[in-house]
């Protein structure tokens, strides 16, 4: 039988980390990307590249990877203890975060960031490239917000009901 203390710690860690991640992503969609989009395309590209370079050396990365690892642990535990009460919801919680936040980031947002990083201030079509980047990156970021927020809500619900 899975220890309720271990599960409680994992759910609290997931609730807090997914809530923090949702807030970071919300800031990007809510105002950072909109502010960048008001700049000249070349300035927007430079600013976003600066953020992308800075974020990989920040406290965001341990939070990003740590929360992703915990979501995988929740998935594994839900499968191991499948017959126990709440296992299905724990699987949904871990899966929502891992797929909607981590996989989305790896498959969509990071490749867009990598392609943006290759541009120079004198690259041709910066305006068109930024426009495509802004729309596509922000759309996938919305998915990351929703996935992270749903995960946080599910964790709180699980903590209060199990």
Give a written overview of the molecule:
This protein is mainly alpha-helical and 162 residues long. The chain has one domain. Helices cover 85% and strands 0% of the residues. It contains five helices and no strands. Helix 1 packs across helix 3 and helix 4 packs antiparallel against helix 5. The longest helix has 36 residues. The chain is elongated and about 60 Å long. It starts with a helix and ends with a helix.
Feature tags:
mainly alpha; 5 helices
Question: Could you provide a short overview of the structure?
Answer:
With about 160 residues, this protein is an all-alpha fold. It has five helices and no strands.
Strand-helix topology:
Blueprint: H1 4-38, H2 41-55, H3 60-80, H4 87-117, H5 126-161
Helix pairs in contact: 1-3, 1-5, 2-5, 3-4, 4-5
Termini separation (Å)?
A: 14 Å
Task: Name the poorly predicted regions.
Answer: none
Radius of gyration: 18 Å
Number of helices: 5
Shape: elongated
**Binned strand content:** under 5%
Structural class: mainly alpha
Helix content: over 70%
Order of helices and strands: HHHHH
């Amino acid at each position: 039988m899975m220890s309720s203390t271990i599960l409680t710690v994992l759910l609290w860690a997931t609730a807090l980390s997914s809530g923090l991640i949702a807030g970071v992503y919300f800031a990007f969609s809510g105002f950072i990307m909109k502010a960048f989009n008001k700049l000249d395309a070349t300035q927007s590209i430079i600013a976003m590249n600066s953020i992308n370079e800075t974020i990989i050396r920040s406290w965001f990365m341990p939070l990003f990877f740590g929360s992703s690892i915990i979501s995988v642990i929740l998935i594994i535990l839900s499968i191991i203890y499948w017959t126990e009460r709440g296992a299905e919801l724990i699987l949904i919680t871990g899966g929502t975060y891992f797929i909607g936040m981590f996989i989305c980031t790896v498959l969509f947002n990071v490749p867009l960031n990598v392609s943006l990083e290759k541009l120079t201030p004198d690259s041709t079509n910066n305006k068109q490239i930024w426009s495509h980047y802004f729309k596509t990156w922000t759309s996938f970021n919305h998915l990351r917000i929703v996935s992270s927020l749903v995960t946080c809500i599910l964790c709180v619900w699980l903590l209060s009901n199990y």
